[in-house]
């Protein structure tokens, strides 16, 4: 983890060390406050800027929700940023930026997540082969599906299946 702003970590750590060393009255309470401050600032560094989401109007938010819903219904379709943008009548660059701003992930990454969720269901059923699952999910070839699944889940589809069915 490499926060953009890290000066607060050093500053609060020094305050904690000093307060712990001197052991004045209410030292424990003050150390707790410093720790809370540290964790809050770390959380703010990790979380996307919540104020960004407020600049989207209701119509744009609804359009993005409509696209996300469509992606979840038609995860097997050969989606591209261009086809997604065409679906919602946005330019590809505007769609990408707006979608990522609102959901915190790109539309393509969101589609991959939807496909991986569906893949785990299909692999657990143990009915279809990995080749058939790749085809059902809209992957142009099985190797691409296997690479994507392994990258997303940390194990291969076959290992996932054997762990789920054992």
Give short descriptive properties of this protein.
flat, mainly alpha, 73% helix, 166 residues, single chain
**What is the helix content?**
over 70%
Order of helices and strands: HHHHHHHHHH
Structural class: mainly alpha
CA radius of gyration: 23 Å
Compute the number of helices.
Answer: 10
Low-confidence stretches: none
Described by strand count, sense and barrel closure, the largest sheet is:
none
The protein's oligomeric status is single chain
The proportion of residues in beta strands is: under 5%
Indicate the mean pLDDT: 87
What is the distance, rounded to the nearest whole angstrom, between the alpha carbons of the first and last residues?
36 Å
Number of strands: 0
Judging from the principal axes of the Cα atoms, what is the shape? Answer: flat
Could you explain how this protein is built, in words?
The protein has 166 residues and is mainly alpha-helical. Helix content is 73%, strand content 0%. It has helices at residues 7-22, 27-46, 50-53, 58-73, 81-88, 92-103, 107-125, 130-136, 142-153, 157-164. Helix 5 (81-88) packs across helix 6, helix 7 (107-125) crosses helix 9 (142-153) and helix 7 (107-125) crosses helix 10.
Give a brief outline of the structure.
This protein is mostly helical and 166 residues long. 73% of the residues lie in helices and 0% in strands. The mean pLDDT is 87.
Q: Could you give the topology of this structure?
A:
Blueprint: H1 7-22, H2 27-46, H3 50-53, H4 58-73, H5 81-88, H6 92-103, H7 107-125, H8 130-136, H9 142-153, H10 157-164
Helix pairs in contact: 1-2, 5-6, 7-9, 7-10, 8-9
């Amino acid at each position: 983890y490499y926060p953009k702003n890290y000066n607060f970590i050093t500053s609060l750590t020094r305050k904690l060390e000093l307060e712990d060393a001197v052991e004045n009255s209410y030292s424990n309470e003050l150390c707790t406050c410093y720790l809370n401050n540290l964790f809050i600032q770390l959380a703010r560094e990790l979380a996307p800027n919540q104020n960004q989401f407020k600049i989207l109007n209701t119509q744009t938010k609804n359009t993005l929700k409509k696209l996300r819903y469509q992606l979840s219904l038609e995860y097997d379709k050969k989606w591209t940023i261009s086809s997604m943008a065409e679906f919602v009548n946005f330019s590809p660059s505007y769609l990408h930026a707006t979608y990522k701003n609102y959901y915190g992930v790109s539309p393509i990454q969101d589609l991959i997540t939807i496909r991986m969720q569906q893949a785990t269901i299909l692999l657990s059923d143990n009915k279809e082969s990995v080749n058939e699952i790749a085809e059902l999910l809209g992957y142009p070839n099985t190797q691409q599906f296997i690479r994507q699944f392994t990258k997303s889940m940390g194990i291969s589809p076959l290992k996932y299946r054997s762990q789920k069915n054992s």
